[in-house]
Every structure is written in C-alpha cells, then in structure tokens.
C-alpha cells in the first residue's frame, strides 16, 4: 500500500481548500482502485483531528516538524496539494517559504515531491520570487491548474521539473445524494422563486464593494423576484462580510452557516439559479451545476478561471458598480439556458481531465515506488 503525504491549506475551514483535498484524495483513491490497489494518506493540517475524521486519513499538525519528518520518512512521495499556495498577495507572509520548505524537506529525505494542480502567483516580493526559482526547480513534477500559472512559472524561471497544465481538482467532485443537510437547506427556500446566491469575502480597501454588491442584489431581487442566499465559504473570514452585506440589503437573506462537506456544498448549488461571487470555488461549483454566474476578480486566479469558462470578470472589488453588476447578472439570466448547456459541457470535460491527471500522478508515484 503506497503512502502519500499531502500538504495544503487544510484544516482552516475554507470550503474551497477542503473541496480540493476531498477531490485529490477521492481521485487518487479511484485511480489506485482501478488497478486493485489502495493508497494511504497523511495530511498536514491545522486541525488534524477534524481532518482525520472527515477524510478518513492520518493527519499531523502542519507545523509539527518532528511528526512531519516521521511521516515523510515512511512515505513514498510528498504531494503539495492544489490551490493558490505559492503566492504572496492574499496569503500569509511566510506561505511561500512554508510550502517550498516542505518540498525541499521531502527531497532531502529522498522522496519525490509533486506540486499538484496549483495556482501560481502573483509572487511579488523579490525574496519570494528567488525562493520559487531556487526551490520549485527541486520538485520532481510541477502541475498547474491554468495557463497563467504556467506563464508565471516561466517568469519565475522554473524550468527544471516536468511541467504539466491541468485543471482544478474540484472539477472532479461529485455531489452528495440524499443528504439530510442538503434537504434541510432546501426546505428553507421559498417555492417557485429563483434563488440568487452571493459569495463575498473581506477586502482591505474598505466596504464600498459591499455597498455596490448590496445595491446590485436588491436590483436583481426586484427584477427577478429572487430570494437571496449568502455564502460564507471561509466562515472565519467571510461570515462577518456576509453579515455586513445582509445588513446593507433591503431584501431578506439566508446566510448559509451549515458545516457542509464538499459533496454536500456542491449539492446545495443545484438549488441556486444565479450566482454573484468573489470566491473561486463558488464559481467552480457554479460551473459544475450549469449555474449562470458573475465573478468578481479580486485575484488573478478568478480571471483565469472565468476565461476557462468563457466569461469575463465584473471587475476588481474597488471598481465595482451596482449598475454594472446588475446588468451583467441580467445578461447571464437572459441566456441561462444556453449558459447551462455550455457550462455543463465544459465542466464535464474538465472533470474528465481532473480524473485523467490523478491517474497520471498515481502512475508517476507508483513507478517511482517500484524502483529499487
């Protein structure tokens, strides 16, 4: 039974990152089962007990160096999981050093180190750019989730390891079936009225963006007779912004505060009719359910995803206007039947690519483990 150690932004309660972990684990397990084998995982987590219970894995503290070294020594490979780990704009100050340090540690212990479908950049600080150039080149394989990330690696002079462009692992996620939590949410909705979901996150340049989003939401409620659901996908950070947005709205809103698994959250999205979102994985969930969407480009990764989905950003948070947001959403609504067909077709292709890539990663590790 091969053993993989996986690192990422796990155990913090960010629904997007938890969905990435769930999708990576599921896809790799499926790849192993196709050839009659199993995988064992150790995940580096900010909350090891919760991660172990939720994902059926071993878990150790993400800063517990002694246990990390022990896990790596027993492992066949180290996987730096998907997400925007190598960037220094919205991440913590030491994020780049932390994630690259784990790559170097794995290599020093003689283990293959793989970057799995990551979103790279922006990396703006000169020291961090130097770290990426020096240490990402130590990886055994580097894969990114979009072309812009590949270009960013080129600008950072990462040229040595094999480089693969794939898609975000969450495209392989499958929705939960017969979930009591999803049924409970559905029962809160009013029948025969469209449901508009809004995903916001805090933004350092003041709260004017929330005022514009609130005005746009009220406009759409009036135009479509819609009901509103607010989505704090990273509750520790997003819930205050959602509550502030709710106070700014003239219309009532439900704040989705349930602790849902990734498959349950995807199932909830099937009950929405329109999405206005800042969070990247809210947009991915929307694509997987064929949901008309308007994305707000707070980070280049959002622009990159929207481009993959054939859509344009509504602008940066500081540049938003209620009139522009409302107009963009009404345009999406008017073309919702065609949008649904297009998004489902495209996301189905991306799901197949995510599963294919997991098989490639599994084969890569298996081949390495088989060498004397």
What is the fold's blueprint, element by element?
Blueprint lengths: L1 E6 L7 H19 L5 E7 L2 H8 L2 E4 L3 H10 L2 E4 L14 H14 L4 E6 L7 H10 L5 E4 L2 H9 L7 E3 L14 H7 L8 E5 L8 H17 L2 E4 L4 H14 L4 E3 L6 H8 L4 E4 L2 H9 L4 E3 L4 H9 L13 H13 L1 H35 L2
Parallel strand pairs: 1-2, 1-4, 2-3, 4-5, 5-6, 6-7, 8-9, 8-11, 9-10, 11-12
Structure, described:
- By secondary structure, the chain is of the alpha/beta class.
- It folds into 2 domains: 2-166, 3-Layer(aba) Sandwich (Rossmann fold); 180-349, Glycogen Phosphorylase B (Rossmann fold, 3-Layer(aba) Sandwich).
- The chain contains 14 helices and 12 strands.
- A 7-stranded parallel sheet has the order 3-2-1-4-5-6-7, with helices on both faces. It has a 5-stranded parallel sheet with strand order 10-9-8-11-12, with helices on both faces.
- Helix 7 (180-186) runs parallel beside helix 10 and helix 8 crosses helix 9 (235-248).
- The longest helix is centred in the C-terminal third of the chain and has 35 residues, at 336-370.
What's the number of structural domains? 2
Q: Looking at CATH, which topology of the largest domain would you report?
A: Rossmann fold
- State the major sheet: 7 strands, parallel
Show unreliable segments: none
Please indicate the percent range of residues in DSSP E strands (runs of 2 or more).
5-15%
* Strand adjacency order, main sheet: 3-2-1-4-5-6-7
Provide the gyration radius in Å. 21 Å
CATH superfamily annotation of the largest domain:
Glycogen Phosphorylase B
What pattern of helices and strands is seen along the backbone?
EHEHEHEHEHEHEHEHEHEHEHEHHH
CATH architecture of the largest domain: 3-Layer(aba) Sandwich
What is the CATH top level name of the largest domain?
A: Alpha Beta
How many individual β-strands?
A: 12
Overall, the morphology is globular
Round the mean pLDDT to the nearest integer and report it. Answer: 95
Distance between the termini: 16 Å
Total helices: the number is 14
> Percent of residues in helical segments?
40-55%
Helix/strand class:
alpha/beta
């Amino acid at each position: 039974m091969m053993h993989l150690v996986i690192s990422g932004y796990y155990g913090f309660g960010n629904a997007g990152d938890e969905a990435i972990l769930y999708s990576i684990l599921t896809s790799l397990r499926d790849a192993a089962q196709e050839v009659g084998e199993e995988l064992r995982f150790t995940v580096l987590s900010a909350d090891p007990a919760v991660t172990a219970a939720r994902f059926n894995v071993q878990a150790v503290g993400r800063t517990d160096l002694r246990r990390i070294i022990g896990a790596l020594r027993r492992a066949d490979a180290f996987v730096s999981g998907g997400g925007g780990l190598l960037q220094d704009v919205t991440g913590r100050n030491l994020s780049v050093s932390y994630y690259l340090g784990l790559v170097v540690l794995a290599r020093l212990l003689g283990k293959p180190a793989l970057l799995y479908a990551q979103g790279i950049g922006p990396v703006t600080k000169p020291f961090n750019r130097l770290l990426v150039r020096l240490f990402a080149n130590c990886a055994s394989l580097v894969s990114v989730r979009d072309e812009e990330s590949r270009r960013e690696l080129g600008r950072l002079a990462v040229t040595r390891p094999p480089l693969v462009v794939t898609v975000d692992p969450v495209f392989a996620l499958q929705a939960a079936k017969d979930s009591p939590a999803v049924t409970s949410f559905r029962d809160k909705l009013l029948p025969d009225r469209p449901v508009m979901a809004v995903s916001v996150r805090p933004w350092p340049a003041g709260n004017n963006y929330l005022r514009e989003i609130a005005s746009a939401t009220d406009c759409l409620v009036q135009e479509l007779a819609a009901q509103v659901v607010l989505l704090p996908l990273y509750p520790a950070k997003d819930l205050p912004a959602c509550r502030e947005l709710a106070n700014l709205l003239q219309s009532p809103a439900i704040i989705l505060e349930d602790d849902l698994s990734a498959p349950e959250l995807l199932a909830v999205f099937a009950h929405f009719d329109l999405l206005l979102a800042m969070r990247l994985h809210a947009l991915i969930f929307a694509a997987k359910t064929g949901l008309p969407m308007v994305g707000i480009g707070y980070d280049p990764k959002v622009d990159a995803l929207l481009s993959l989905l054939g859509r344009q950003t509504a602008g940066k948070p500081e540049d938003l206007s209620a009139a522009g947001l409302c107009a963009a959403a009404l345009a999406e609504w008017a073309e919702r039947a065609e949008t649904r067909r297009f998004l489902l077709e495209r996301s189905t292709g991306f799901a197949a690519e995510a599963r294919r890539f997991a098989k490639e990663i599994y084969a890569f590790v298996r081949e390495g483990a088989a060498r004397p």
